[in-house]
Amino acid sequence: WAKAGNTAGGGPEPTGASDPFATMDDAQVPEAIQLLIENNAYLSPEFVALDRGFYSSAARVREEDHALFEDANLRAYYSEAAMFDLFDNVRPPEEYLSAETIAERGAAFLKKAEFARRFVEAGGKIVASSDITQGAPGLGVHQEMAIMQEDVRMPQMKIIQAATKWNADAHRFADIGSIEPGKFADLLIVNADPLVDIMNTRNIHMVIKDGDIWEFGYRPEYGGRLFANSMVSDDRSVVEGADWA
Predict the structure, then answer these.
(1) Rounded CA gap, 190 and 178, in Å?
(2) How far apart are CA 48 and CA 140, in angstroms?
(3) Beta-carbon contacts of residue 129 (< 8 Å; ≥ 6 apart)
């Protein structure tokens, strides 16, 4: 992989394999999966952030991201630099990659999705995540879950676990991730069955956080660190203590 280049694809045309999964040896997959499971490894595929435009819902994700920021109340939280990063991430690959690289990366994504499917089927656990600012805030997790359904072909219950219990377990959070006595009452109540279609997790009826019902919409007084970026700065850090981290 020494000459694998930039998997993000935003820079110059890479030399050699533009995606490590392009070189995947299928014969070694079972042993690799077994090793990961034996070591209790949780995988974070980050399809939206890393597989720019190669998952089947790429056009839909692009439309969703642009539509999301038509809301002026959300734009008040977000810096122009952060929005540029998000929109750049969902550009069609045809705008910045050669046909040869597009073919290679398209084939590599199929291998990556197949690896994830086999890993989960063997008992492995992956987590649904979004890589802000390359993924849309909030919506990015739902987009990741849709890719798990449409491309990885995971069962819907396991996708829900990837976004809740497996994610909490991976980060050693014992008081969230599942509905049990003694845990925080964090609930997402939806109007349709996500076991039929994981897209139904977007049909939200109510959000309960630590037992309190939360209002929908954006509150201008909210000062959470996630949205503390300056509207004129290109500082896109989303956590405190980056130097320590």
Answers:
(1) 16
(2) 7
(3) 44, 46, 141, 144, 167
Give dist(CA 107, CA 94) in Å, integer: 15
Q: Tell me how far apart the alpha carbons of residues 198 and 109 are, in angstroms, rounded to a whole number.
A: 21
Q: Any idea what DSSP says for residue 21?
A: G
Is residue 42 a contact partner of residue 187, using CB atoms and an 8 Å limit? no
**Given the structure tokens 């009826």, which residue do they identify?**
205
Q: What are the φ and ψ backbone dihedral angles of 73, each rounded to 5 degrees?
A: -65, -35
Q: Write the pLDDT tens digit of every residue in 43-102.
A: 999 999 989 899 999 999 999 999 999 998 888 777 777 888 899 999 999 998 889 889
Interval 171-223: pLDDT, tens: 999 999 999 999 999 999 999 999 999 999 999 999 999 899 998 887 766 65
The residue among 97, 95, 98 whose CA lies nearest residue 87 is 95
Extract the tokens encoding 134: 């390359």
Tokens coding 200: 């139904």
CA 41, 117, 192: angle at the middle one, nearest 5? 105
